[in-house]
Amino acid sequence: MTPLDPPGRTIRTVPATFLAGPDAPKREPAAARRAEPEPTGASGATPATPGAVPQPAVPPAAVPPPPSAPAPASVGGDAGAGGTGTGTGTGTGTGTGGTLRLPEAPLPPAEVDRLVGGQHHDPHALLGAHPVNGGTAIRVLRPFADRVLVETDQGPVELTHQHGGLFTGLLAAPEAPDYRLLVEYPDTEPLRQHDGYRTPPTLGELDLHLISEGRHEQLWQALGSHVRTVGGVAGTAFAVWAPNAAGVRLIGDFNHWNGTGHPMRSLGSSGVWELFVPGLAEGAHYKYEIRTRHGEVLDKADPLARAAQLPPGTASVVTSSSYRWQDGEWMARRARTAHHRAPMSVYELHLASWRPDLTDYRAIAAELPSYLKGLNFTHVEFMPVMEHPFGGSWGYQVSGYYAPTSRLGGPDDFRFLVDTLHQHGIGVIVDWVPAHFPKDDFALARFDGEPLYEPADPLRAEHPDWGTLEFDYGRVEVRNFLVANAVYWCEEFHIDGLRVDAVASMLYLDYSREGGAWTPNQYGGRENLDAAAFLQEMNATVYRRCPGVITVAEESTAWDGVTRPTDRGGLGFGLKWNMGWMHDSLVYMGKDPVHRRFHHNEITFSMVYAWSENYILPISHDEVVHGKQALVSKMSGDWWQQRANHRAYLGFMWAHPGKQLLFMGQEFAQGAEWDHEQGPQWWVLDEQWPAHRDHLGVRRLVRDLNGRYLETPALWEQDSVPAGFGWLDGGAAEDNLLSFVRYAADGTPLVAVCNFSPVVRHGHRVGLPELAGRDQLWEEALNTDAAAYGGGGIGNSHPVKSEAVAWDGQPRSAELVLPPLSTVWLRPV
Questions:
Q1: Which end of the chain is more exposed for a tag (fewer CB within 10 A), N or C?
Q2: Distance between CA atoms of residues 346 and 617, nearest Å
């Protein structure tokens, strides 16, 4: 007990909660709530769940089970529940236990109604301590409290209950003294609390200006929830952008999801609402209760939340990072790397299903880096890691843009995974989805009761393919939300690349829309000029702030300048997925060899436009789902021919200009489509599987493709310029053959010969470049028909000396043995 403790009562300081009413009755969920967290037991916290962020450290007795709410007192000189005083605002009374009661400092009834009803734009102007005639008014909103006392150096004095949980009192002091509150609820010990309504706004004028201008490049540091100390008091600051709201209150497991005692203040024309909650610590679950101009009440997750509740829960979670990065060497090297002239071989995976037995980020970190390193991949690409409500969307319908999904752990756990990959020399790319968002009522859709993140025009808002909503790229605050989000993942999580999903759907107003179902731009065209401007701003900002990061566009049309720098009128991406190459080449490989001569242009056409953009060749998740079959199953022929075609195709892909990407499971030629619930068919690699040697052989090939690729600058140093490539014979359609040469910057060549027919070709002459100052000897750098890869072992086992016989436009040539359905690489000895 302290000298101020009332006799016979123990007063406890609550370290991690600031209660609007710990015994406030849990209200029925609002219409907008989905899967709201339910308090359990005395603490009111949700049960611990594997992979979830920590729960708030509230002593169990601090949050009693909610009883029935007391009847509201009448407006005016109510003595307050449990009191017997007769204060009228000009005198004093006697409270319970003989405590001195302050005179009232009442508010007009209309103001009280707005405050208690959650419709007041500036509750801080009424609550807290304020100078008035005769002293300092102290007003506290504690619904369902029996008594509220103000604790000063002079001792405790009691406030008077006016109405609806509003307690007031008048201190005879011209300036507010330092004070704390003692709050008594029925059948509980008194709680000692700081008054959060005494604090100034936690956002400065510069923050608000940048938010209004749409230029806050570190928006996550201003909005959302942040554990911090204000005026020497530890707590959590909350801020949310909701410009159309009539009122915003904070609800969470710390106030039994009743926001009456936590109204937020509007910070002027910025549209931002803010509140500092003393004592609230990391792990608290919360949402914003938004009262719309139409009288609706919406419970919304925080758009800037950096952690989220484990689905199917939908609450946001207060978090702070204590992670210490160990990847300084990687980050410094990345900043010096010119990616277009560097090797990049990407392994794409879905984190939750890559190894279903690995159930969190740290467990994955113990296995994934060594697997990738063993196959010589340079990068890994994660399908979206942002929080999403429906697992079947694979993360492409995002509800929490700033929160790594809690299905696999907390934000620092994800940092650990990225850090570990960097320490193993593996770059990390993540899929990012600024094209659309789901309509779930707890998330961004009609966030403050009006179209906010989405366009007001329903013809532009609705995405017809996915039943989602598109972003309003013309609104500066929305654009800022997305641009800052791209920067956030690169700065806070050290992400090395962003693969931007569904860019084509952003760029065209008529994308998947029939005539009359779309509205043109101001020039009458179909181009979404706002989306193009957003992508330019995003790319320019990311490249300026994050040295060495690369952005990649999944863009399937002929939009000009996707990878052209923004200062030359382009969109500014670093790389673009070559969807045309992927489609055409797979059509060719799906044909029986006897028919391939009629489709030869499908395998060669990509070189017509190869230098129009900076490309990456993708065999992604999109190509092995929804009835499209696994890569090996797309190939023609029986099982032997399918595997041979698969190997030959990979050899062609790795030699073709452009970086390359391969989805998980295709590196060992699994036969079935990807299933996000089961993951890759790892069991086909087990000795018990009859064809396990076939699958192991393909995986060895991928390992060696990457290994030869890394040690051969000709395959990556001049990917984006015509000087890095030359046809030897691109027109041998009747024979299903093609051959070409790749050049390093110093002129060192590598020759690739593809035989897409099922016959062995002996003595086939191939043109070869002159090797200045060398012995004109060539050797196989790689042969996809090697026995180690599951092939027939046919090839050129000894070095081949070129002859001074001009062929294929080259001064020299040699006769080779070409295995069936194979790709052979030749390099100078």
A1: N
A2: 10
The tokens describing 823, both together, are 């790709």
Residue count of the chain: 829
Q: Give the pair of three-digit tokens for residue 650.
A: 């990979």
pLDDT digits (tens, 9 = 90+) for 616-673: 999 999 999 999 999 999 999 999 999 999 999 999 999 999 999 999 999 999 999 9
Name the residue type at position 55. Q
Residue 668 · residue 698 · CB < 8 Å: yes
Mind spelling out the 3-state secondary structure of 30-77? CCCCCCCCCCCCCCCCCCCCCCCCCCCCCCHHHCCCCCCCCCCCCCCC
Please report, for residues 52, 307, 742, 785, the alpha-carbon distance to residue 715 in angstroms, rounded to integers and kept in the order given.
Answer: 44, 41, 6, 20
**Gap between the Cα atoms of 502 and 556, Å rounded:** 9
The mean-pLDDT minimum among 17-31, 344-358, 410-424, 534-548 falls in: 17-31
Collapsing DSSP states into helix, strand and coil, what is residue 123? helix
Q: Which two tokens stand for residue 553?
A: 């566009």
Residue type, 355: R
Task: Enumerate residues 6+ apart whose C-beta is below 8 A from 398.
Answer: 384, 386, 387, 388, 433, 437, 438
**Can you read off the two tokens belonging to residue 777?**
């000897």
Sign, Cα dihedral of 586, 591, 593, 596: negative
Catalytic residue IDs: 501, 554
Closest-CA residue to 165 (of 239, 263, 237): 263
Distance (Å, whole) CA 296 – CA 403: 27
**Mind listing the pLDDT tens digit for each residue in 172-183?**
888 889 999 999
DSSP-derived letter for residue 719 is T
**Axis-axis angle for helices 411-423, 328-336 (nearest 10):** 70
Helix, strand, coil shares of the chain, percent, nearest 5, are: 25, 25, 50
Average pLDDT for 413-424: 98
Smallest CA-to-CA distance from 102 within 79, 81, 70, 82 is with: 79
* DSSP three-state, residue 577: strand
In the predicted structure, residue 48 carries a pLDDT above the cut 50: no
Residue type, position 166, single letter? L
pLDDT above 60 for 229 = yes
